[in-house]
């Protein structure tokens, strides 16, 4: 409908492609999501220019799907571009900038660059704590990601502390039975040192 009314290169089509790409990603259709995110990015660049946060959103979405496909070099390049665009367009202390940095840290984690991932997730957590309420779900996600990296680094006490805080926030912010709560419970059980 948006395409017929406004043409292919329109804000409405840009938004639809982003939503459709996320839907494909949620269903596990990585190739379909990639194609939609690439088209979304092309339209975003055409409509908004190169230095717009909406272009950074397209870069972040595409980087995420490439990371999931194991195409880590390309994902890193796009995630770095997105992080730079977010900083330039929105500033460092912005919730959306944290989302771009989060994808960059996730790419580092997938590449096995755990210290770099730790630095990235700590920065995401710092920003979220500065700009969001203390029990916001995104803060819980940042703690979860940091805890996962710390566990992979063998720093179990730090990992368990981050994961406990993540679980507490998720229990407060998410509906009972939400998959994010179960995910945090499993991670905490794996990271916690055995009693005694």
Short description:
Helix content is 80%, strand content 0%. It is mostly helical and 196 residues long.
Shape: globular
Q: The biggest beta sheet, please?
A: none
Would you count the extended β strands for me? 0
Helical content (DSSP H or I, runs of 4+): over 70%
Regions with little confidence, pLDDT below 50 for 5+ residues = none
Structural class: mainly alpha
Averaged pLDDT: 93
Strand content range:
under 5%
Q: What's the alpha carbon Rg, rounded to whole Å?
A: 18 Å
Fold blueprint:
Elements: H1 2-6, H2 11-26, H3 30-48, H4 53-68, H5 72-90, H6 95-110, H7 114-131, H8 137-152, H9 156-173, H10 179-191
List keywords for this structure.
10 helices; mainly alpha; 196 residues
Question: Could you explain the architecture of this structure?
Answer:
The protein is mainly α and 196 residues long. The chain has ten helices and no strands. Helix 7 packs antiparallel against helix 8 and helix 8 packs antiparallel against helix 9. The longest helix has 19 residues. The termini are far apart.
